[in-house]
Design a protein that fits this description.
With 166 residues, the protein is α+β, with helices and mostly antiparallel strands. The protein contains 4 helices and 6 strands, in the order H-H-H-E-E-H-E-E-E-E.
Length: 166
Amino acid sequence: MNARWFKVLIVGALLAAGVWGWRVLFPNPERMIRKQLTELAKAASIAPNEGELARVVNSQKLAGFFTPEVEITIDIPDHSLQTINGRDEVMKLAMSAHSSLSNVKVEFVDVNVSVEPTKDAATAHLTAKANVPGDNVPQVQELKATFQKVGREWLINHVETVRTLR
């Protein structure tokens, strides 16, 4: 009887290892994109009393979530339409934000990811929420982000504001 349980445990362990290995070698694209967005929100957030080295590192990390030819078109109410072209410009703006703001918390909520059948592109519809010091109400903006699979990573190659009825 003990030998039978031992065999069942070995088979169960092998199945669990196989499932784990499959998930590591062939991760779910939607899960990877959601993880990227969570990491992007952390990189875009600015901690209070952030040191100069941390500002540079976080700005570089933030730029790393985008393709080199990224295009970002943001239309924030009460501000002008702004277009950002290229990863270098993203990094410059991130450095500027990290230098001028003392504390910002960024979150992406209501994330809806759809992966193309070819599994090399995806679109995420999401709501960006930023808590900025001095504002009692968080800044909220609906966005559409297009992802491109580069190697094993999903990088953002286009972001645009989604117009909503107000």
